[in-house]
Amino acid sequence: MKIEPEHAEARVLLDWQKDFQGHHFKDAAALVRLKQRVEPSFTTQALAYLQNSQANVVVKVRIEGDGSVTVIDATGANVLVTNAVRSSMAAWKFTPAMGENGPRCVDTEIPIVISRR
Questions:
Q1: What percent of the chain clears pLDDT 70, i.e. is strictly above it?
Q2: Which end of the chain is more exposed for a tag (fewer CB within 10 A), N or C?
Q3: Domain locations in the chain?
């Protein structure tokens, strides 16, 4: 019998437009192009951390010419929360940014504020 790790879905607010600790979204136009957002899946330990606090995570991403996301770096609160956000954002999809010669890559930082509802 294989025992799967226990994961729980958190009802969290991902507020990437909210300013915190001097960070702000550098490319607001990218969020307009967001086509698919995948919610993070938190372990029970991460949920316990979120029970009494808000988590701030800054994710540096490259939105590729095909709209896929490459996560360059993620820093923030708790490592378990940060890793869950990092993993979920890698599955996000955007409408590609267009340049003179067609689709282009965009590097940006996205601040994420996570709190229990």
A1: 73
A2: N
A3: 7-114
